[in-house]
Design a protein that fits this description.
The protein has three helices and eleven strands, in the order βαββαβββαβββββ. The chain is an alpha+beta fold. It has a six-stranded mixed sheet, with helices on one face. It has a three-stranded antiparallel sheet with strand order 9-10-11, with no helix packed on it. A two-stranded antiparallel ribbon has the order 2-3.
């Protein structure tokens, strides 16, 4: 990893305070076989150590809306076997979602957005060097102040670009590479759009560490082509995309 300090106090890039360190990675850092669920913390990667150390540090410093403890969790009966958690503080204390008029709502500079994050909420900036293919845009990794799970972070394409919450190919590629940097079997990335639970109309994805495997991840898929499948076992049908290799 390399540290690069610049004059940017907030995620918006205004001059002043130091920016977060850069987490520089290459293809050699990708973990193609994560640890097993029988011992998920056996060999954390460099990425896991940096993310969880920074996240725990911010938790100890009181930068979250609440302290995340053990959450009551159970698997619901039924064929889908949904994992249900009770997180009362998130329900009561998270920022209310912004009103949604359209899935194409433009960015609103007057509403809360990630250019307003404090420097202390930023953990590091992900930047790839070398192959394979062109590197994705760098992603800022920031704490999610209303966490769902341990290590719950936001993955932010350059916030100063003020992109609305509509998924782009470079942001998705960067998030998938972040997933490959973790050696933990439960690290997941996700995206929820406008009308799908997103509380801020400013482009972001989520990363977090699940505490258990999800049955959906081992459900059979119907092949639709060499890199495409259809998953019917979940709450709603879904497409599965397979990357070569």
């Amino acid at each position: 990893s390399a540290a690069a300090m610049a004059e940017t106090p907030t995620a918006g890039g205004e001059p002043g305070e130091p920016s977060p360190e850069e987490f520089v990675y290459g293809e050699d850092d990708f973990v193609l076989q994560a640890a097993s669920w029988s011992d998920p913390d056996s060999a954390p990667s460099r990425f896991d150590r940096a993310l969880l150390a920074g996240w725990s540090d911010r938790m100890e410093r009181g930068l979250f809306r609440y302290r995340l403890g053990q959450l009551p969790t159970r698997v619901l009966p039924g064929p889908v076997r949904l994992v249900a958690q009770l997180n009362e503080q998130r329900s009561a204390e998270r920022r209310p979602p912004q009103p949604v008029r359209s899935l194409r709502d433009p960015f609103d500079p007057g509403a809360f957005n990630f250019t307003r994050l404090r420097p202390t909420e930023l953990l590091f900036r992900l930047r790839r060097t070398g192959g394979p293919g062109p590197p994705p845009d760098p992603l800022l990794v920031a704490i999610n102040a209303s966490p769902l799970e341990r290590g719950h972070v936001l993955l932010l394409p350059e916030p100063a670009r003020r992109l609305p919450q509509a998924l782009t190919a470079p942001a998705l590629r960067g998030a998938l590479e972040a997933a490959l940097l973790s050696a933990h079997p439960g690290f997941r990335v996700g995206f929820n759009g406008l009308g799908g639970g997103a509380s801020v109309n400013h482009l972001h994805l989520h990363g977090l560490y699940l505490g258990r495997p999800l049955p959906l991840e081992e459900a059979p898929a119907e092949p639709l082509g060499p890199h495409l499948g259809l998953l019917r076992a979940g709450p709603a049908p879904a497409f599965l995309f397979f990357a070569p290799g």
